[in-house]
């Protein structure tokens, strides 16, 4: 708690320093500063006072707000293919009027396998109804799907249908892009912009993985040269600011826990390299941990984030999107660290 308060105790001084540094920079660099954006990926929009302050002090200009997921449900009939909206976000506070809100939709691969054009129509209608109900203007829809080679054709068709519908309303479509989806084929994908997801880059399930959230040198660099030159100019970047503990039992993935402090020696023994062993059985975040369970602590590190953004620097204006608006994760990073990402 003390750490959270100290975050904002010094922010005025930090902002003054930031303005001084920015003023000393060449105007061409200022022109290439990214638009400041953040994801909200919870199922309830009810930002805490801390989270509201984060938006304010970091001058966040855009929020990508997940509205609902699209999945298969055989017991419902939202469309003829039983593709249905699930996990709709509950809006418990008014959406901000001073920050652009971009509704975002996650579509599962299972739903994409059964895609037909009426699904795009249903998505746009539902988004429009929700945004009108909450009295919020919107100019863009972002679609997120972990599509593969088997579902790529349907995904491209879905984007084309969505783009057509949105264009007729004076709106645009953007799409997330995972590293394994990068390649020449995306050059023909009918979207206005991409958001390259530079997180969850490693294999979470493998105990030998170093950092599944972000390992820039091992997991990101090999993909960068595969981005088509034309698409690089329409590429926004999404970076992680969060951490977690990955629990393994008998070398098999067991669960994820959001706690990252395992300094209690009555329960954990340090194995070095951000890894711990459970020495006393207990329950943590609803998970029953057993003796000899292993925990790998992962965190998005500035030593990975900053070189990665430097490598991807472009004079073309773009958005830098932080994942995501959650005080429990963001409070681990100082004001100065967050500001460094936006330079």
List keywords for this structure.
343 residues; alpha/beta; 8-stranded parallel beta barrel; 5-stranded antiparallel sheet; 18 strands
Can you summarize this structure?
Helices cover 31% and strands 27% of the residues. It has 343 residues and is an alpha/beta fold. Helix 6 (117-133) crosses helix 7 and helix 8 (216-224) runs parallel beside helix 10 (302-311).
What best-fitting shape do the alpha-carbon axes yield?
globular
H/E element order: HHHEEHEEEEHHEHEEHHEEEEEEEEHEHH
- The share of residues in helices is 25-40%
- Alpha carbon gyration radius: 21 Å
| Largest sheet descriptor | 8 strands, parallel, barrel
Mean pLDDT metric? 89
The separation of the N and C termini measures: 28 Å
Structural class: alpha/beta
Q: If helices are DSSP runs of H or I spanning 4 or more residues, what is the number of helices?
A: 12
Beta fraction: 25-35%
């Amino acid at each position: 708690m003390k750490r959270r308060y100290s975050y904002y105790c010094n922010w005025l001084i930090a902002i003054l320093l930031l303005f001084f540094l920015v003023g000393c920079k060449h105007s061409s660099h200022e022109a290439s500063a990214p638009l400041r954006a953040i994801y909200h990926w919870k199922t309830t929009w009810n930002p805490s006072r801390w989270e509201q302050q984060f938006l304010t002090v970091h001058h966040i200009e855009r929020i990508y707000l997940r509205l609902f997921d699209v999945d298969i449900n055989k017991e419902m009939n939202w469309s003829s293919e039983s593709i249905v909206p699930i996990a709709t976000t509950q809006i418990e506070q008014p959406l901000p009027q001073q920050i652009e809100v971009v509704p975002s939709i996650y579509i599962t691969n299972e739903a994409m396998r059964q895609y037909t054009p009426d699904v795009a129509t249903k998505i746009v209608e539902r988004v429009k109804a929700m945004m009108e109900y909450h009295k919020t203007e919107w100019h863009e829809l972002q679609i997120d799907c972990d599509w593969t080679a088997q579902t790529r054709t349907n995904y491209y068709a879905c984007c084309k249908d969505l783009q057509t519908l949105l264009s007729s309303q004076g709106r645009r479509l953007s799409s997330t892009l995972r590293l394994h989806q990068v390649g020449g084929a995306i050059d023909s994908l009918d979207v206005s912009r991409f958001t390259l997801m530079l997180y969850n880059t490693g294999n979470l399930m493998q105990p030998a993985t170093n950092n599944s959230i972000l390992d820039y040198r091992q997991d990101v660099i090999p993909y960068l040269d595969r981005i088509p030159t034309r698409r690089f100019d329409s590429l926004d970047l999404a970076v992680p600011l969060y951490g977690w503990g990955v629990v393994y039992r008998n070398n098999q993935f067991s669960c994820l826990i959001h706690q990252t402090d395992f300094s209690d020696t009555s329960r954990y023994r340090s194995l070095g390299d951000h890894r711990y062993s459970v020495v006393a059985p207990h329950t943590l975040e609803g998970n029953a941990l057993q003796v000899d369970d292993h925990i790998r602590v992962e965190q998005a590190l500035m030593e990975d984030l900053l070189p990665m953004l430097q490598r991807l620097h472009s004079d073309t204006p773009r958005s830098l999107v932080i994942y995501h608006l959650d005080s429990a994760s963001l409070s681990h990073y100082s004001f100065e660290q967050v500001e460094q990402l936006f330079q």
